[in-house]
Every structure is written in structure tokens, then in C-alpha cells.
Input
Amino acid sequence: MSIDLFLKRFAEQPAGEAVRTEIRAVLAAHHTVGPDDLGTYFVTLPHGIAVEFLAQELESDEPFEACAFRIRRRELDARVGELVLAIARAAQCVILPVMEPFTPILVDPQQAARVPRNMAHRIDELPLCITGAELAAVLTRAQIRTIGSPFETSPV
Output
């Protein structure tokens, strides 16, 4: 079973080449194969875990607005979380996990102002992940930090 994570930019300005350069730098820090014909990269972390990173717009002339990760659930850990956060920060993206209940995950508190209101009932309750461990915990519903509160344990 996999966890699919979409990363989406909610910014007034389209991403320029600087964003692509930052994303490529994150990928270059790991053993990365790709892209294939569909824009899929296979990224292997130093501890041997590999994830799929889908970013068709990365090597195109189209504005870079979104990308995605496909991660095997059993392999989700803090190190995988750090990779996802590094890409999300480089691309200035909010993480949109495909899971219920749907909850956008912020990587920067300033993103809260740009998340469309139809995606979040209460902006102050959106998870804010600073570390890979926090992201892994949020995705497994073990812990959550919100804009309005410190990192705290919640029931699984």
C-alpha cells in the first residue's frame, strides 16, 4: 500500500527557473534516476529506501505548479519525510495527502494565508511540519502541530 502526496503551489507568481534549480539540487543530493517519459524520478535515500517523485513540469517549459510522491507506507519514516519537506520547501508547495480526512499540510506558517478556503475549514488547525519526523507522524496520524498550537501528541 502506498501513500500518495501531491505538492501544490498556492502562490500569486508562477514558479520560475530558480524553483526548478532548487528542486534539482535536492534530487542531486540523493541517488536519483530519471526522469522517465512520464516525468517520474526514482530517488534512493542513503538508508536504501526508494520513493517515486513525479514531476513532469520539472523538465518542461510549462510553469511548475505541482508534483507528487508515491511512498510505500511501510517505508515512511523521518528520512523520507525530510526529502518530501525539502522538495516542498524548494517548490514553495503545500502537501496534499490523499487520505481521509483530507488535510493540507503546511511547511511554512505563511502558506496558511494562501491555502484556498474550500480546502480547509479552519486555517489555524492546519498541520505545520518542520521536521521529517513530524511529517511522518502527521501522515500516520500519530502527532500533529497546528498553526495555533505547539507540537503535541494526539490519539492514533
